[in-house]
Specification:
The structure holds 2 protein chains of 2 kinds. By secondary structure, chain A is α/β, with parallel strands linked by helices. Chain A has 2 domains: 5-104, OB fold (Dihydrolipoamide Acetyltransferase, E2P); 113-373, Alpha/Beta hydrolase fold, catalytic domain (Rossmann fold). Chain A is built from 12 helices and 16 strands. Chain A has an 8-stranded mixed sheet with strand order 9-10-12-11-13-14-15-16, sandwiched between helices. Chain B is α/β, with parallel strands linked by helices. In chain B, 36% of the residues lie in helices and 18% in strands. Chain B has 12 helices and 14 strands. Chain B has helices at residues 6-20, 54-58, 70-82, 101-107, 111-114, 144-148, 161-173, 221-235, 253-263, 278-290, 312-318, 322-333, and strands at residues 3-5, 24-28, 63-65, 86-91, 124-129, 154-156, 178-183, 190-192, 206-209, 214-218, 240-244, 247-249, 266-269, 299-301. In chain B, the strands form 3 sheets. A 7-stranded mixed sheet of chain B has the order 3-2-4-5-7-6-12, with helices on both faces. Classes of the chains: A alpha/beta, B alpha/beta. Chains A and B meet through loops of A and loops of B.
Chain lengths: 374, 334
């Protein structure tokens, strides 16, 4: 009676996830599980997260033991009623494993689709999704030291409505490392040029951290381009201040252990700082030109009045603006609500550090998606 | 991210540095290759194809085929380094180093010191190591301890394509002599390697797998074997922390000591002969600095104190293999 057997498969969190490793089971074989209950902790190259059971039933068989790495869609466990006998479960598992190939489960073609654009003489990498969707496109701008992969958990939900583009800022990710200007306005000019190079005339702009300041500056420089603005844990919002110890620590850290301590500032739950996450950051920091680019951006951010001027001009933004505040952000402080322009809407993501789009991905995606639909 | 082989990664690193800096040159036996062959000069690019295409791009003035004379190669390279070039010299097999060892350990390694800090010697010596290639006792040795024990030399042992590129760029930009040891059996191993230039710093070990039961240190090809065994043992609930020193000089003692302080157990996997080896060196460091953390005797998995056998079945048994590595790990946990 196969209908009473439910496979529990490796989930796909974000467009770039290809495999996950079982960290811990919250349930034992033989336990009853309700839909939505914590079932298993899974570690990906980005994050460790709890996978909640997609169905109710008795956990009859744990197939993937702690420490095992499975491709997306691989068989983690089997739920079935008590009436199903062990032989049927054995047959189900054998049959599943015999017929499963990782590519079957890979709906994204393996990782993010990316292309390169010439943004006013600077080569930028852009990831895209949802090209076939009708609504006004969204453009996502990451923060200091980040890259477009910071958005992988948000791109999927947004791409259900509209084309989504996430770019690597100059000096970041796999974009060109030589900056044509390190000030927020220079980075906004690069975004404006990239949007034009993508052939887009009107977009929803979503910016995180430094990328929030860049998005705000873009909206002020090119108001006709911006359908809406979403500022996530953003710099440049009135009252928000940057923890310069983070900027300096990120630039100065050369070794994994130093960078691990700095990266812990990014999350409310420091256990999210995995070895792979730190290795990814180190690999970025080792690239030629990155150190110079980060120092130049840091100096422009800290030593000019650009951010203060942005905050003072925020009231001139005409586009509907959503400010997402991460409750436990140790990198950018919460804005001064009294100083915010009246047309700015504020939402707080509780329990999240500086990267709510990763640490509280579902909640943040729902907020952004609703704002873009409104 | 593009996947590239260890061989391609080394080629790309040298090529990018030659484009960036006209003082970088390559010299050695058959580094252009194809002399007297039907394909023409430059069609080979070293006997393993690591330097393919460099002669065509940079020409005979920067890619120099030398006579079969290691002492000439390293003598010329050391002098060129002292007088303003950045040579990347090749000793085809580390086994051949005997005939040019004076130029390495008593000349290049000591120039900075002998000239009161006024001379620099930005010299890279690439060479190949390792058995398992059916190449006999005189083309199969793993000789990193010979170089590691010499003050004034830096010694690099990349274990994957990503590190191979970043460590080569770091080696070429370094102002001291660097011995860069390529594991022959890793040339086709692929990894994600950025197209851009990047540097992997010397003296920082890579914790390739975190674990709490036992620390396993491996150099070169042996690291990849240790990692594979650790992956298998994880299924049996044995949680290995696997450490790749990346460079044996400078050497990152701290990472290994911190790991042993956590696990209390140490297995060292090294393809060199067991006496006066890096395995015995690491063992002595840990005994001196973390003795109280040890819950079991340290186990070294090395080859025996013999020449590398030519018979394939003996050669396979001679090298530390997955079975011997697993036995050692289980023994320290028993």
């Amino acid at each position: 009676m196969p209908a009473t057997i439910t496979p529990i498969r490796m989930p796909k969190w974000g467009l770039a996830m290809q495999e996950g490793t079982v960290v811990a089971w919250s349930k034992q074989a033989g336990d009853d599980v309700r839909e939505g209950e914590d079932l298993v902790d899974v570690e990906t190259s980005k994050i460790t997260n709890v996978y909640e059971s997609p169905a109710s039933g008795r956990l009859r068989r744990i197939v993937a033991q702690v420490g095992e790495t499975l491709p997306v869609g691989g068989l983690l466990a089997v739920l079935a009623d008590a009436s199903v006998d062990d032989a049927e479960i054995d047959a189900f598992v054998t049959d599943f494993q015999a017929n499963f190939t990782p590519s079957d489960a890979d709906d994204g073609g393996g990782g993010l689709a990316t292309r390169e654009v010439d943004a006013g003489g600077v080569r930028l990498r852009v990831a895209f999704a949802g090209q076939d969707k009708p609504d006004v496109p969204a453009v996502l701008v990451h923060g200091f030291g980040g890259d477009l992969e910071n958005w992988t958990l948000l791109m999927g939900p947004l791409a259900e409505d509209r084309p989504v583009y996430a770019l690597d800022l100059p000096g970041h990710g796999q974009s060109e490392k030589t900056l044509h200007g390190a000030r927020v306005g220079d980075l906004a000019d690069a975004v404006i040029a990239a949007v034009a190079a993508l052939g887009l005339t009107r977009v929803h702009l979503v910016g995180h951290s430094l990328g929030g300041a860049v998005a705000l500056a873009t909206a002020l420089r090119a108001p006709g381009l911006v359908e809406s603005l979403t500022l996530v844990a953003a710099v440049g919002v009135p009252g928000a201040t940057v923890n310069t110890a983070y900027l300096d620590g990120f630039i100065d850290a050369q070794r994994a252990r130093d960078l691990t301590a700095v990266a812990a500032l990014l999350f409310a739950d420091a256990s999210l700082v995995t070895k792979d996450l730190v290795e990814g950051l180190l690999r970025y920091k080792r690239l030629d030109g990155v150190d110079d680019a980060l120092r130049a951006i840091r100096d422009a951010l800290v030593e000019t009045e650009d951010v203060a001027r942005l905050a003072a001009s925020a009231g001139e933004v005409k586009a509907p603006t959503l400010v997402i505040v991460a409750e436990r952000d140790a990198v950018v402080s919460a804005p001064d609500r009294a100083a915010l322009p009246a047309q700015f809407k504020v939402e707080v993501v509780s329990g999240s550090g500086h990267l709510p789009q990763i640490e509280k991905a579902e909640q943040t995606a729902a907020l952004v998606r609703a704002h873009l639909r409104a | 991210m593009p996947k590239k082989s260890y061989r391609q990664a080394i080629n790309e690193a040298i090529r990018m540095e030659m484009r960036r800096d006209p003082s970088v040159i390559v010299l050695g036996e058959d580094v252009a290759g194809g002399q007297g062959g039907t394909g023409g000069v430059g069609k080979v690019g070293n006997i393993f194809g690591v330097l393919a295409g460099l002669y065509d791009e940079f020409g005979p003035e920067r890619v120099l085929d030398t006579p079969i004379s290691e002492s000439a190669i390293i003598g010329a390279a050391g002098g060129a380094a002292m007088t303003g070039l950045r040579p990347v010299a090749e000793i085809m097999f580390a086994d051949f180093v005997g005939v040019c060892f004076d130029q390495i350990y008593n000349q290049a390694a000591k120039f900075r010191y002998m000239f009161g800090g006024k001379a620099k010697t930005p010299l890279v010596i690439r060479t190949t190591i390792g058995a398992g290639f059916r190449a006999g006792a005189q083309h199969s040795q793993t000789l990193h301890p010979l170089f590691t024990m010499v003050p004034g030399l830096k010694v690099v042992m990349p274990t994957n394509a990503y590190d191979a590129k970043g460590l080569m760029i770091e080696a070429i930009r370094d102002d001291d002599p660097v011995i860069y040891m390529e594991s022959k059996l890793l040339y086709d191993a692929e990894d994600e390697v950025p197209d851009e230039a990047y540097r992997v710093p010397f003296g920082e070990a890579n914790i390739v797998r975190t674990g709490k039961h036992v620390t396993v240190v491996g150099m070169g090809l042996m690291l990849t074997r240790a990692k594979a065994v650790a992956g298998e043992l994880a299924k049996a609930g044995i949680d290995c922390e696997v450490i790749d020193p990346r460079t044996t000089s400078p050497f990152d003692e701290d990472t290994i000591i911190e790991s042993v302080e956590k696990t209390g157990r140490l297995v060292i996997v090294d393809e060199s002969p067991p006496r006066c080896s890096l395995a015995s060196d690491i063992s002595s460091i840990v005994v001196e600095k973390a003795f109280k953390a040890l819950k079991a005797p340290i186990r070294k998995v090395t080859c025996p104190h013999t020449p590398v056998p030519f018979a394939p079945n003996l050669e396979d048994e001679f090298m530390p293999n997955p079975r011997r590595i697993e036995e050692a790990i289980r023994e320290v946990l028993a």
